[in-house]
Amino acid sequence: MSALPVTGGAGVIVRPVRPGEHGAVGRLLVEAYAPSGMPPDLDYWDALRDTTARTRDAEVWVAELDGSLAGTVTWAGRGSGQRELSRDDEAEFRMLAVDPRLHGRGVGAALLEAVLARARTEGWSAVVLCSATWMTAAHRLYGRAGFHRIPDRDWPPVPGVQLLAFRLPLPGHHLSGSPG
Ligand SMILES: CC(C)(COP(=O)(O)OP(=O)(O)OC[C@H]1O[C@@H](n2cnc3c(N)ncnc32)[C@H](O)[C@@H]1OP(=O)(O)O)[C@@H](O)C(=O)NCCC(=O)NCCS
Predict the structure, then answer these.
(1) pLDDT tens per residue across span 1-33
(2) Ordered structural domains, the chain, with CATH
(3) Are 133 and 32 in contact (CB under 8 A)?
(4) pLDDT tens, residue by residue, 55-96
(5) Which numbered atom of ligand 1 lies nearest the CA of 140?
(6) CB within 8 Å of 137: residues ≥ 6 apart
(7) Which residues are near ligand 1 (CB < 6 Å)?
(8) Of residues 110, 124, 120, 106, the one with CA closest to residue 6
(9) Whose CA is closest to atom 19 on ligand 1?
(10) d(CA 104, ligand 1 centre) in Å
């Protein structure tokens, strides 16, 4: 299933962000990343807040739980300026986050499953992402889904911050042309 909305486990609905939600999604991202230890002076905080900019070259999805905004993820398909480490045949996603008050209820897993469903349907060879060293809950989520580390693609966006690269190969049929 690739078309949104999708209803995942735990009754989570994943759907495209609506224009009136851009501010709330930005705030959710900042709130979710805040306890992580991310240095406060990074420009990345502005990138997290700016949902509108992100929608110009990627798809921003949200998760709804019991009718409320619960989480978000950014799907960076073919040609997206949000792609950071993917090769041409690899899908990439970014900025996965769940409202800290709703952690541990399967919202993150539902967003990840929506990403994987889109990637499988579009025939991408793999899904990749990068994640900061301190995002350990996310790393467990990725491990459970079958992602493995690809250290040769780790990279430092700014001095002192190392991003870890993860990859999930998708077996089966792949489009030979231009996925996504
Ligand atoms: C990573 C993140 C998105 C996970 O979101 P989440 O909604 O809490 O994820 P899930 O609920 O699917 O899984 C989290 C935990 O809850 C558990 N869980 C999931 N559903 C559950 C349920 N119904 N009952 C009990 N526990 C459950 C999972 O087993 C998992 O346990 P673990 O982390 O101890 O291994 C969230 O922690 C977050 O926003 N972190 C900050 C931002 C971040 O690091 N983003 C990653 C960017 S690369």
Answers:
(1) 457 888 877 789 999 999 999 999 999 999 999
(2) 6-169 (3.40.630.30)
(3) no
(4) 999 999 999 999 999 999 999 999 999 999 999 999 999 999
(5) 35
(6) 103, 108
(7) 10, 32-33, 36, 96-98, 103-109, 129, 131, 135, 137-138, 140-141
(8) 110
(9) 106
(10) 5
